[in-house]
Write a structure and sequence with these properties.
By secondary structure, the protein is an alpha/beta fold. The chain has a single domain, classed as TIM Barrel (Alpha-Beta Barrel), CATH 3.20.20. 32% of the residues lie in helices and 19% in strands. The protein is built from seven helices and nine strands; from the N terminus they run H-E-H-H-E-H-E-H-E-H-E-H-E-E-E-E. A nine-stranded mixed sheet has the order 8-7-6-5-4-3-2-1-9, sandwiched between helices. Helix 4 links the parallel strand 2 and strand 3.
């Protein structure tokens, strides 16, 4: 029944968008840990999914090490053989990794470049993950009193800018997605728990302010910021994100943590990388 429901949902989605507009895929590490020997990628293609997002974490205590490199090598090869393209979602293993050392962001960017060199068949990267949540970037604010300034957005924005440059230096055709925000955030540095930043505030502060400081325009060629909003096409109980580029606005259902195993449409209408 579950498989039938999934196929039905995919059929409806395909009917609403032309084949050239949307790529359907999953955000799931199950295939990575099959080490190229399981049935995960065949299962994806059997229901029309042709893309898989895999997570790769950066450990600042071993800044040049690619965690799970062997798993990645074998699973990416298996995915490509099955007709599935792989996108890598890269971000630090520890929430304070980028705030402790002023050189950490540069080390993270260099590691991302090494990742692109090691796996040249991967042409899309998501840089950073849920920067507006303390689980991934901590602290969120410069103090614990109301009105304390946000600091996590600048940390995330710097990492995105440096990683963008590093990835483009390896291969200009690489497309960089940023920054995978959580749809939730309270903007309350004085909160008793989950001291977090609203996605719109985090996105505008990170992507706009940091981009300008780095000498970039608001819309980077070959990069995009995710903004959480309601969407007439995807309006439901699930959060959706609007991915903005210089040419289009497209939507996709959020897949962070709670929906990691759900299929998600991936747009091909984004501006091509320079």
């Amino acid at each position: 029944m579950a498989l039938a429901a999934l196929v039905a949902a995919l059929t409806v989605g395909a009917a609403q968008a032309s084949a050239g507009d949307v790529v359907w895929g999953a955000n799931d590490d199950a295939g990575k840990y099959e080490d190229g020997k399981g049935e995960f990628f065949g299962a994806l293609t059997s229901v029309g999914l042709t893309q898989n997002v895999m997570t790769v974490r950066w450990d600042e205590t071993k800044p040049t090490t690619i965690i799970d490199e062997s798993f990645l090598r074998n699973s990416i090869a298996a995915a490509n053989e099955a007709g599935v393209t792989v996108e890598l979602d890269v971000y630090p293993l520890h929430s304070q990794a980028l705030g402790r050392d002023p050189n950490a962001a540069s080390q993270f960017a260099a590691w991302a470049a090494t990742l692109a060199q090691t796996f040249p068949q991967v042409k899309q990267f998501v840089v950073m993950n849920e920067c507006n949540q303390p689980l991934f970037v901590n602290p969120q604010f410069g103090g614990s009193s109301p009105g304390s300034p946000n600091v996590s957005a600048a940390v995330c924005g710097q990492a995105l800018a440096l990683a963008y440059d590093a990835l483009k230096a390896v291969d200009p055709s690489i497309f960089v997605w940023g920054i995978g925000l959580s749809p939730r955030g309270n903007d309350r540095p004085e909160a008793a728990s989950n001291i977090s930043t609203s996605p719109l505030k985090s996105c505008t502060t990170s992507a706009s302010g940091t981009a300008r400081a780095a000498g970039r325009s608001r819309s980077w060629t070959g990069s995009t910021c995710t903004r959480t909003r309601s969407c007439s096409r995807c309006r439901s109980s699930r959060a959706t994100t609007i991915r903005r580029t210089s040419r289009s606005r497209t939507c996709r259902a959020s897949t962070r943590r709670s929906t990691r195993r759900s299929p998600v449409p991936r747009s091909r209408r984004s501006a091509p990388a320079a």
